[in-house]
Amino acid sequence: MSFTQRLRRRLFPPRDAIEGYENEELVDTIYRKTVAYRGQANWPLVEGLRTVLDFGGGAGIHYKTACRQSPDIRWAVVETPAMVRRAKELATDKVRFFEQIEPAADWLGNVDLVHSNGAIQYVPDPFGTIRSLCATAPGKLVWHRVPISEGEARREVQTSYLSDNGPGHASSLLEKLVTYERTWIPERAFIEAHEGYRMAERSHDPNERGTQQFAFLPN
Known about the structure:
- By secondary structure, the protein is α/β, with parallel strands linked by helices.
- The protein has one domain (14-218): 3-Layer(aba) Sandwich (Rossmann fold).
- The protein has helices at residues 3-11, 24-36, 61-69, 81-87, 101-108, 126-134, 187-192; strands at residues 17-19, 51-55, 74-78, 95-98, 113-117, 141-149, 154-161, 177-186, 197-204, 211-218.
- Helix 2 (24-36) crosses helix 4 (81-87).
- The longest helix has 13 residues, at 24-36.
- The protein is globular and about 50 Å long.
């Protein structure tokens, strides 16, 4: 973010706020920034994979990077109904958008990887969602930016700037705040929800302070 943008936020803080991931203005912001995003050139995680189920993958931001490395990879994004409606025009024979996990897995046929980056903490039932993802029998599950609690689950209201949502940064003269609830997920319950899988990797996630990243493999 530039000095001018930081100064503008300090001198002219947003007065308006929008709530939740189903908000059409938030969805449209993420969609437009994703369309403009060009992707990166190297992502070792997806090398050699044929199919990926991306839980909470927005308008296909992760696919745009993956297909640069693996043009034939097939990618199923599971998202909110509002995001699926907005992103469906981006669907091709290689990437599609779904509201539910099971239809996404059925379309892929075989799931090499379940990928999720900063999403599981926003769903109403994180543990049921994890079990449903494990039921697709992926070859691997990878989680990024998971807020882990050492004690009980706890809810909090998280706030961000509208222009900070989605890839990159886009300044806006009509900046707004975005609020949504997220859950700090108990460590033991998170691990135990992966029925039939064992934790293979775990570390602090460098992309968001206080969160962790994980990889799970079949038992």
